[in-house]
Each structure stands twice: as C-alpha cells, then as structure tokens.
Input
Amino acid sequence: MTLTATKPTESVTSHRARELDESAEPGWIARWARRDPVRAVATVLIVVQLAVRADIASRGYLAVDDFVLASYAAGSKLDADFVFGVYINHMMPAPMLITWLITRATGLAFWPYVLLLLAGQVFLSVAFYRLLRLLLRPGWGLLVPLCLLLFSPLTLETTSWWWSGVNVLPMQLAMVLAIGAQARYVRTRRLRHLVTLALSMVLGLLFFEKSILIAPLVFFVTACLFVRGGPVRSITRTVWRYWPSWLVLTVLGSAYLWLYVSRAESSLRVPASPGEVLTFLRQLIGNTLIPGLFGGPWGWLDVPGDGAPLAAAGDLARWLAWALLLILMVVTVLIRGAAVRAWVLLATYVALVAILLGATRLGSAFSAAAGLVPRYVSDVVVVAALCVGVALIGLIDWPEQAPGQPRAWLAAARDPGAIAVSLVFVVAGLLALGLGTAWSTARFADDWAIKRGRDYLQIAQAELAKAPPGTVFFDLPVPADVLGPIFAPFNLQSHFFRPLASRPVFVTEAESPSIFDQAGHIRPAKVDGPSTAPGSVPGCGLQVTGGTTVRMPLTSPLYAWHWFVRIGYLSSADSSAILRFGDAVHRFEVRRGLHQIYFPIVGGADGFDLTVNDTAATVCVDQVTVGNLAPRAP
Output
C-alpha cells in the first residue's frame, strides 16, 4: 500500500518539476538573440533608426519638386514618353512611374511616400549589415560602421523628402548589392553573381542617373579590397582577373548613357572661376561630408521654400571634425594594413563625386551653395561607413602582418593603465558622437516640420469645400515660399491643385472672381493699381455710345506687363466691346444693367481706348482700374 501510494506522488512531483523547467526556458526571441547577439543588437538599432526617421518624415510633407512631379503625373498619360521623359535633365523611369501611380490613387497624400521611403531604408539597412557580415571580421565592431550609416544626419532627407529619397535610396541600395555581388564573384567565380551585379546596376539606373558611378565604385572596391599588391599590380590584376564584371558594367553603363544623351540636354557646365571650384570643394568636403561623418553638421541653414535645409557647420566644429578624421586615419593605418586601402578607396570615390557634381552644378545660379546640400553626398556615406569598418575591423579574408615581436608602442598599449585611459577616451568619444548626432537630427526635424506648402494646401482645401457654387478664380502663381517662379508653369494654381479630386474652377473673365490669399483663404478679388480719371457726364461718368471709341487716360502710366483690368459699368443694352491698352486688345461682352468685369491683359500705356459695338447701347463707365489682382480685405 505504501509503495502504490507514493508512486503517484512522485509522478506528480516530477511532472510539476518538468513544467517549472519548461516555463523557465527562454522564449524564441531570447533564444534567437543568444544565438547571435550582434545580429540581435543590429536589429534593434535598425528598428530604432527607423522609428526616428518615421517620426521626422511624418512631421513634414511634400515639398518643391514633389508638387511638380505630382502635377506632371496628374496631367500625363502613362506611356513611354512620360516614364522615360526628362525632368530638369533627370531621367528616372521608376520614380516617374511610382509618382504617377500614387498621384492617381491618393492625390497629394503624403503617407504613401513616407511608407515607401521607410521601406527603402529598411532594405538598405539590412543589405548593408549583410555586406558587413560578408566582408568584415565578425564581432561587436560591426555595429560601428552600421551605426554610421543608420544614424548619419547626412541621410535624413533621403527618408523625409520624396524627391531626394526616391533617387538616392535606391542608388545606395544598388551600391551595397553591387559590392556584395562582386565580392561573391571574386570568391566563387560563379556567373549568377554577375547577374546580381548587373541587376544591381539596373536597379540604380532606373531611379537615378548618378548610379552610373556604381561601375567605377565596384572597380575600385575590387582593386583596393579584394586584390593584393602595389597600386599598379592591383589595378592590373583587377582588370585581367575580373574582366567579365567590367564587361557587364560597361555594356550596361554605355547603353544607359546612350539613352540618356539621346533624351536629355547636356548637363555639363563650366565653373565661373577657380575660386568657385575651391569654394565648392571646401563646402562639400569640409563643411558637409566630414562633419556629417562625426554626427554633424550640428547646424542647418534654412532655404527659401519647403526643401531640406543645407549643412551649416561652425568653424570650430568643422576643424574638430577634421582633426578627428586625421586621428582616426593615423591610428587605423598604424594598427591595420588594410586601412590604407580603405582610406584610398574613400578618397577615390569622394573625388569621383566631386568631379561629377562640379561638372554639373557649378557655373549656375545655385553654385554658391552647391557644396552644402547633404543629398549630394548621401551616397558617399555608404562608402565611408564601409571604409571605416574595413579600417577599424579589417577584412575577413585579408591577412594581417606576419607574426613576430609586436611594435614597442603596441606592446605598451597593452598595459592595463593604457587600456583604461583608452577606454575612457573611447567612451567619451562615442558619447560625444551620439549627442552630436542627436542634436543634428533634432534640429533637422524641427526645420523639416515647417511646411508652407502643406499649410497652404490644407487651408485651400477646407475653403474650397465650403465655397458657394459659382466660385471662380484666375490662374495665379502659388506663394513663392510654396513653389517659386523657377518652377513655372508648375507654380500656377491650375497645376498645383491638379492632383486634387476637388479642384478650383479657373476662368479668363469673371464678374466676381475670387482669389486665394497668401495663407490659402478664399477672398473676393480686387485690382490694385492706377485708375482712369473720373468722367464729366453727370450721373454717368465716362459715357460711351454705341459705335464710338472713347479715350480714358490713367492717373499714372504703366509699363508693358501682365496686368488685370476691372471695369465697372452701367449699360442700356447687351453689346460687345473692345478695350485697347497699348498694343493689347481685349474683346468682351457687355450686359444690360449694372455690372463689372475682370480680365487679364498684357500691355502697357497711359490710358485705355474703349469701343462699344452696338449702336443701340450706351455704356456708363464709373472707373477702369489696371494693376495686380489682390484679395479684398474681409
């Protein structure tokens, strides 16, 4: 009895023990993290940067070129001429197609663009981490170049501004994929990696013509990182050993250049002076790129319109960034042999970018600030992050110096005291870098949140929804800080509002036109400018009988320009009339009774000539005013 009574008790106890053991086992997330803690932390970092970028992007809205592309898409058919068309000398089939689809589906909604930009950043982040795992020695050090790419303030506008991100993000992704494909081809010589290389190049070129730089980038990555020997031997071996890669890239690049040249005008410019070139290089490298690699630029310069701000690093911060770069280069070169090749690779790619930008951006009205545009070096951040990783960590298959007695300074550096001091400096440096990056990011977010175009559009849409039937407008430009005159004719309201489902009605003549004020509110229109002198006919003013022409002098003359005219009149009958203003002639209908009419005219003179055609009509004109159309005070 005793034995049979204790067996169930033991069984229950062991069962409960097993349940406790099973409940104490970590979940699948913990097990996944334990298998590869570096990957787990990298995943967290990717998610964190994605949350930061999503927050920044969602504060803003479409800006500048985004409105132009949306308007162009809303007024175009989806055909080859549209998709392969050229916009300010950019041939970008994929962005044109995507913008057309989003515009037709959601109008000027911003959320689809934000989602696409964030998705592109996810692909880029994961692909870059995989590239680091492929090329660099494993360990926690992989997180350093990863963080450099993930949190660089120089790439914030690529996940906030559609016009910038839709070009640069795919190019960055294509660069990473192309380098990875070439690395695998170098190791295995399998043709499928050449296919991946070709597809990566095509991906970049579909979005941005600057992706043509992927071809020389892959070549120099191969020569610097995958081939050993001196400079001449490395170049020679790169050419002869991996000629299939250069054949693929050359064919694709040549075909694209032929198509681009056949459709676009030449983008090449001549700098105005050597000083312009030096200023550009100082801005591009000294003010934008190098401070940006160390968490800068710490200050942003607002520009007219809603576009992304320019880099504005202070003098002290700029020189400090230069000093940190010099220290990093010297230390890594002393520690690791491959570091020299990494810095040569970075310098070579920066030179390629500078030459391309200098040849296409200098000698224009915007060249004075061309070197301060962060998106111009967003692709460099990818190369810089990779090169920093190579210099700090080393290539996974690159042999270090032959074993032997360590150098005296390296042996001294292993002293516990020296290690402690080094750790203090490293921690302090990382903390300063993180705080600087956070400051630059926060200031960018503050600037990006100010969107004049969004506010103007929201107010205008609300006003249109409650406007009475018959509300009509003349086609005027939107405010310059929404879309400037350089974008004409897309800065006209008829183009700006074109993607909307409910659009304003535009006319060329109206008795009671309305106008959008600078904030987007609908107001009755008036004409501000000189008027005709009062007429002498009692109870009539200026009297025009049918079949005659009356001269009406202005209180002050006007030069030839685009003006608006308002005529207030009382007519005894319906008739047609002709108004002459210098060389300009405008024909309009006169209606019986008390009315007014507004219309645009292009001309200039010191007065008007008014003719009423119907001999049975007599028209009394109180005043004719010519000038600019403006909102009437509420």
Remarks:
- Residues 1-8, 401-410 have pLDDT under 50 and may be disordered.
- The CA atoms of residues 216 and 337 lie 23 Å apart.
